[in-house]
């Protein structure tokens, strides 16, 4: 059968990203290791970081194991059937809510090979249903609500369970992708940059663009859209709440800093759920295949890396005060306004360029038939929304201050210590400042992520628009930060 023009559009070769096969392998095995190291190195047993890590020249492995709470049965203690069972039950519960709760059906963007997929959106309803149950449980049982105690007490094992699931899901969609047939069978197609022929790279980047699975009694689920907005994002909120409850169990009170972070991150997640249909125009849905990168990123990296601050504060409480809340809140609101208003402007323009809210904006016509905004938010920088997103990252870390603490035995009577209900004392000590490796890692990582994502989008647009893209870049000069980058 002769190729159609749309099918031929898929043909251009895409070079390797993320350092190619070696980079993909390093990320695939390196990031799970990093999260596990973070879980032990910053702990509620000896400190953050563990005291021995501050003196690497005299490091004793056995002493370090005691300080970080290494499992008695070694590496096997990193996982448990109980944690795996609970994790699977959580995913199943999320899938059931997806199927049973009412939602809105929306068509996605047109596939490069023709046709559109339908999506059901009810992530906000699903999350609110779950959170109401947890709120009721907390109201009746307080900080000892079993969900909170289980998450905090089995943190490492739950982390391991999700890592295992990420690998299992990535393997499944990789193998399944080889059943994609030419001719747009059931609207299935391979991602343009996901079938290079290198197994390691394709496994990581994702071969199939929109894999779906049919589960008995539940029905069909778009796997990528499901994991993008449901279990990982809601898990982010649930873990934060578990650490708030843990702080109360340890100290008998809850500080403004941990509440502030938990609330603003919950708003961020619920706002994402409220704007769920907007995901259909993102690179993750329209361009990237579903591979290990998105599987791990959505169900492991997001809920476990993004909660490092509340995990830290659960053991080392900090008070922000009114001035701190106002200052950090101003940074947050500025970032949120830039992020939300710019994205809203783009979505309105794409949906209806004659809408009165965007009809006054200037744009550039391209040979590809697409209009590129060159005024308004998108005339300031090509990814002005990324600046807003990054500004929102700072209020997640700033409440931890000059992070770092040591946990001393009861009765030490150290100056400036905060005392747990069991008598143990927590002081900054010589760990002061070293904890920022854990609590500010997100800010640095997110900057690198956004810069890399900008580069990927630039390459995609260069291939799509050719000379028009170069003309566009001369008009809108700045990538993310006006007059800086």
Order of helices and strands: HHEHHEEHHHHEEHHHHHHHEEHHEEEHHH
Helical residue percent? 55-70%
Largest sheet: 4 strands, antiparallel
Overall, the morphology is globular
Approximately what portion of the residues adopt beta-strand conformation? 5-15%
- Structural class by SSE content: alpha+beta
- Count of alpha and pi helical runs: 20
Give the tally of structural domains: 2
What is the C-alpha radius of gyration, as a whole number of Å?
Answer: 24 Å
The parts where pLDDT drops under 50 for at least 5 residues are: 1-12
Number of strands: 10
Mean pLDDT: 91
Cross-sheet strand order for the largest sheet: 1-8-10-9
End-to-end CA span? 47 Å
Would you give an account of this structure?
Mean pLDDT is 91; it is low at 1-12. A four-stranded antiparallel beta sheet has the order 1-8-10-9, with no helix packed on it. Strands 2-3 form a two-stranded antiparallel sheet. Strands 4-5 form a two-stranded antiparallel ribbon. It has two domains: 1-41 and 79-319, no CATH class; 323-403 and 440-485, no CATH class. The protein starts with a helix and ends in a 10-residue tail after the last helix. By secondary structure, the chain is α+β, with helices and mostly antiparallel strands. It is 56% helix and 7% strand. The chain crosses the membrane at residues 21-41, 79-101, 121-140, 155-175, 250-270, 290-308, 320-339, 433-452. It comes from Echria macrotheca.
């Amino acid at each position: 059968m002769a190729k159609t023009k749309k099918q031929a559009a898929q043909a251009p070769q895409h070079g390797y990203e993320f350092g190619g096969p070696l980079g993909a392998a390093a990320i695939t095995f390196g990031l799970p290791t990093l999260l596990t190291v973070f879980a032990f190195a910053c702990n509620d047993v000896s400190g953050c970081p563990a005291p021995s890590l501050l003196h690497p020249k005299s490091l004793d492995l056995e002493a370090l194991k005691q300080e970080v709470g290494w499992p008695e049965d070694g590496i096997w203690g990193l996982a448990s059937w109980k944690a795996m069972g609970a994790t699977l039950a959580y995913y199943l519960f999320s899938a059931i809510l997806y199927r049973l709760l009412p939602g809105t059906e929306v068509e996605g963007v047109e596939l490069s090979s023709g046709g559109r997929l339908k999506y059901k959106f009810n992530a906000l309803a699903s999350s609110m249903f779950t959170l109401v149950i947890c709120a009721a449980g907390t109201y009746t049982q307080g900080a000892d609500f079993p969900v909170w105690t289980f998450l905090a007490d089995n943190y490492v094992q739950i982390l391991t369970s999700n890592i295992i699931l990420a690998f299992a899901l990535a393997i499944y969609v990789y193998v399944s992708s080889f059943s994609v047939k030419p001719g747009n069978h059931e609207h299935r197609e391979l991602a343009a940059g996901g079938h290079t022929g290198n197994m390691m790279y394709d496994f990581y980047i994702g071969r199939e663009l929109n894999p779906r699975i049919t589960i008995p009694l539940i029905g069909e689920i778009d796997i990528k859209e499901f994991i993008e907005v449901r279990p990982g994002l809601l898990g982010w909120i649930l873990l934060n709440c578990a650490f708030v409850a843990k702080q109360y169990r340890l100290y008998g009170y809850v500080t403004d800093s941990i509440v502030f972070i938990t609330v603003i991150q919950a708003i961020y997640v619920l706002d994402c759920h409220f704007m769920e249909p907007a995901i259909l125009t993102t690179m993750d849905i329209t361009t990237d295949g579903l591979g290990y990168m998105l599987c791990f990123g959505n169900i492991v990296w997001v809920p476990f890396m993004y909660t490092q601050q509340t995990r830290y504060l659960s053991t080392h409480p900090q008070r922000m005060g009114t001035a701190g809340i106002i200052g950090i809140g101003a940074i947050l609101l500025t970032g949120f306004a830039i992020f939300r208003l710019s994205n809203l402007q783009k979505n309105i323009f794409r949906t209806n360029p004659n809408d009165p809210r965007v009809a006054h904006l200037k744009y550039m016509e391209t040979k590809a038939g697409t209009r590129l905004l060159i005024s308004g938010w998108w005339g300031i920088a090509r990814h002005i929304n990324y600046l807003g997103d990054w500004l929102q990252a700072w209020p997640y870390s700033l409440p931890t201050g000059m992070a770092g603490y040591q946990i001393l035995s009861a009765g030490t009577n150290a100056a400036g210590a905060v005392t747990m209900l069991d008598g143990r004392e927590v002081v900054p000590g010589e760990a002061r400042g070293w904890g920022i490796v854990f609590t500010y890692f997100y800010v640095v990582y997110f900057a690198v992520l956004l810069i890399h994502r900008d580069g990927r989008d630039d390459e995609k647009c260069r291939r799509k628009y050719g000379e028009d893209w170069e003309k566009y870049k001369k008009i809108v000069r700045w990538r993310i930060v006006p007059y800086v980058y």
